[in-house]
Specification:
Oligomer: single chain
Protein name: YrzI family small protein
Pfam families: Bac_small_YrzI (PF09501)
InterPro entries: YrzI
Mean pLDDT: 86
Distance between the termini: 69 Å
Organism: Neobacillus massiliamazoniensis
Number of helices: 1
Number of strands: 0
Structural class: mainly alpha
């Protein structure tokens, strides 16, 4: 009889953003929202 047991340790920690990354992420979210609004307005015109 063979008993194979594998143990994993998973550590999850929150990623800390520096100023440049935070500004970049904010710009991406703003562009995403603008594109989403544009798509919605184009849908309502049809």
């Amino acid at each position: 009889m063979t008993l194979n047991i594998i143990f994993f340790t998973i550590t999850i920690k929150k990623r800390e953003w520096n100023l440049e990354e935070a500004v970049h992420q904010e710009m991406i979210e703003k562009l995403y929202e603008q594109n989403k609004d544009r798509q919605i307005s184009m849908y309502h015109l049809m």
